[in-house]
Specification:
Length: 400
């Protein structure tokens, strides 16, 4: 008997040419992240210290929440256009114009459902089945999944500790083939906290301009830089090939509102906006009004959040900085990689054993790419005392 016989017996309507799978090939082939396994093991256990959570632990500031209530009460409860409310697109354009010291047109801004929606629209705008997308190793695991869903083959470029977890433009250039459509970069970086210096960003933007490959720059942590300044891929004027992604989640503690943006090459803005129609239509209109309150309101909260993350980053340095376990001091975002190579196990096995032994959850480095298996990622998104305690447990566990 063949697998499909069972189905044809139980349901005479289904006729199948191929053996039955539980879902589409595309869904079945989607890479899953090892972080889920750790989160499932840590869930519902009040004794666990959570160093795995990748979102700010603060509530959204009150003036932003008030903006949403006001909007809902005054009828901002309908669809917006695919590209978002013109008033919010204008505020994003003004913000980027100020930061990049050059004019960004509101027409090139697309409001999305989180930065993740922007990543999806950017890649879907330029990638065809069979194309290649260059992604960082280590890098946020959703890059691989989105490239896969777009039908593309993800190809990894390295970001090694020797290069302070920054990419090597020469290596990226070597990896470009006639099938390469996009290079995906991330600064400040998840999971390492590395921040691209201006010269590096300039070189990568120039590489994209020279080769005609699109650059998709994920800058969702742009407001969380502790030393120096964030340099956007959009600030070099070569915007024909550059998508810049950012949003509200990390800057304004708005992860649950699902609101981000995409700044597009002029020729692709309408395409990227149109791609939202069959997936989300538009970002929530109420959330968009909250986003307006965030951008138009007092920016003190942004600085306050950054100061808290900087203080916590210093706690990480305090606990690990005088050891070889901290390969780089994070300059941005709210993550650090900790070297567990000495423990002699893979990162998933380590994270499970550490959770069981010391009731503390960390993210196995393998989640971020094959080159990251000798690390675990800690997030400094919990109160200082808890953070210090969790990091202390990690250090003593590795030392032991
Ligand atoms: C590097 C990176 N990009 C994008 C996102 C997603 O942001 P959003 O919540 O706005 O979709 C995250 C979230 O953790 C992230 O770490």
């Amino acid at each position: 008997m063949q697998p499909w016989d069972v189905f044809s017996m139980s349901d005479p309507v289904i006729r199948l040419e191929t053996p039955v799978r539980a879902g589409s090939r595309r869904a079945a082939g989607m890479p899953r992240s090892a972080i889920r396994e750790i989160m499932a093991l840590a869930a519902g256990r009040p004794e666990v210290i959570h160093l795995e959570v990748g979102e700010p632990d603060f509530s959204t500031p009150a003036h932003i929440v008030d903006g949403a209530f006001e909007a809902a009460r005054s009828g901002w409860t309908k669809y917006s256009s695919n590209a978002g409310l013109p008033s919010l697109r204008k505020l994003v354009a003004e913000r980027s114009s100020r930061a990049w010291r050059q004019a960004v047109a509101p027409e090139h801004v697309v409001i999305t459902t989180g930065a993740i929606g922007a990543l999806y629209s950017a890649l879907m705008s330029v990638v065809d089945a069979g194309d290649e997308v260059l992604i960082p190793d280590p890098g946020w695991p959703n890059y691989e999944a989105i490239a896969h869903l777009a039908g593309a083959t993800p190809v990894r470029f390295s970001q090694t500790p020797e290069r302070r977890f920054l990419p090597d433009p020469a290596e990226i250039a070597r990896l470009i083939t006639p099938r390469t459509k996009a290079i995906l970069i991330n600064t400040p970086g998840n999971p390492s906290g590395a921040v691209f210096p201006a010269a590096l960003m300039r070189e990568i933007v120039a590489l994209a301009a020279r080769t005609g490959v699109y650059l998709v720059s994920d800058e969702i942590y742009e407001d969380l830089v502790f030393e120096g300044e964030h340099v956007s891929a959009g600030s070099f004027g070569l915007t024909d090939r550059v998508f810049v992604i950012s949003g509200f989640s990390k800057t304004y503690a708005m992860t649950g509102w699902r609101l981000g943006w995409l700044i597009c090459p002029p020729a692709l803005a309408a395409t990227a906006a149109g791609l939202q129609e069959p997936v989300t239509s538009c970002a929530s209109t109420i959330a968009q009004k909250a986003g307006e309150a965030a951008l138009a309101g007092d920016q003190q909260c942004v600085q306050d959040f950054r100061d808290i993350f900087r203080r916590r980053r210093d706690i990480v340095v305090d606990v690990f900085g005088n050891t070889p376990l901290l390969p780089i001091v994070p300059e941005g975002a709210f993550y650090a990689l900790i070297d567990i190579g000495a423990a002699g196990k893979g990162s998933l096995e380590f994270a499970k054993a550490f959770l069981a032994a010391r009731q503390t959850a960390v993210v196995p480095g393998i989640t971020f790419g094959p080159a990251c298996d000798r690390y675990v990622r800690v997030a400094f998104t919990i109160a200082d005392d808890q953070l210090r305690e969790g990091l202390g447990r990690l250090r003593s566990y590795i030392d032991a």
